[in-house]
Amino acid sequence: MPSGKRTAAVFGLLLLALAAFAYTSTRASQKNKQTAPAAPAPQNQPPTITLDSDAQVVTLCPDAESMSNPRVRLKATGVSPEGKPLRYRWEVSGGRLEGDGTDVVWDLSGAPPGVYNAAVTAESGPVDNPLCTAFTSTKVVVRTCPPPRPVCPNVTMSCPDVQQAGAPITFTASMSGGTPGVSPVYNWKVTAGTILSGQGTQTITVDTAGLAGQPIGATVEVAGYNLECRASCQSSVPAPPNPTKFDEIGEIQRDDEKARLDVFAIELQNSPSATGYVIAYGSRNKRFGTGQQRGDRAKEYLTRTRGIDASRVVVIDGGQRETGSMELWIVPPGASPPRPR
After folding, report:
1. pTM, 2 dp
2. Spans of the chain, pLDDT less than 70
3. 118 plus 165 within the same structural domain
4. Domain range spanning residue 186?
5. In the chain, how many domains are there?
6. Is the sign of the CA dihedral 315, 321, 325, 327 positive or negative?
7. Closest CA to 218 of 228, 205, 239
8. Cα pseudo-dihedral 197, 203, 209, 210, rounded to 10
9. Neighbours of 160 (CB within 10 A)
10. Where residue 116 sits, what CATH number does that domain have?
11. CA 105 to CA 102: how far, in whole Å?
């Protein structure tokens, strides 16, 4: 065989030997990997735990329980990587717990303002020697109810229906609602007259002397609410009634005079609160007498014969005129008495 061909054959044999060796090594390596044992899983792995709270702030309102919500719901969620059962142990720095396990209620009723802590521990393994534990906690702020916004009470006033000028009258205030717990202070002002009594209370008495025919306004300011809480009303003092000239009797016969006085007596009986005034004028005719004498005769007839109370008949001597006469007046209460002309 020529030398060139022999060299090529040797080289080909070497290549085949190398390929066979590589194939054998790869198969051995793969076989070794298939038969190697798996690494053991780690033992006693700690659980994981999370804690959820339905509130972070608790507001306590002792005077308004409907506005308070002192109960916080806590929920723990624990997971054991090994699937082991877990126990939950709770601790709080204030208040009290209701329930156990994963869901509890934290009652903070009566707790003073501050920050409180709730912690939960998840355990697995023996109770007296837990193998694995996990811990987490949350905080809740307790605060008192803010002071209520001041609210004015509903203030109303009762104004008098004044019947008579010069008589004292009363104004009364009443109220409802408003900020609770306030001790109201009543401050009164009037537009006319003088407050006789009751300043600082719900009812005042006002003097109306000299105010006939005028209005009287009253305003009450209720202090203690840090607001302007007031009410007003107005009454009118009636003008004084006028006296009424009922009759005027000249120099007539005595029987005719009595007949006229009878009618006057009936009017006084029909007006029991009125006063009868007799203004008598004398004349030069001595038969009728002086004004005083004639007036006294009329009063005597009215009181003794007609039964009119003597205190209700007033005689005024009007002096002397050319021709005598008697004026008969009906004077209601509060009216100014008539005067001689």
Report:
1. 0.47
2. 1-43, 62-68
3. no
4. 154-236
5. 3
6. negative
7. 205
8. 120
9. 18
10. 2.60.40
11. 10
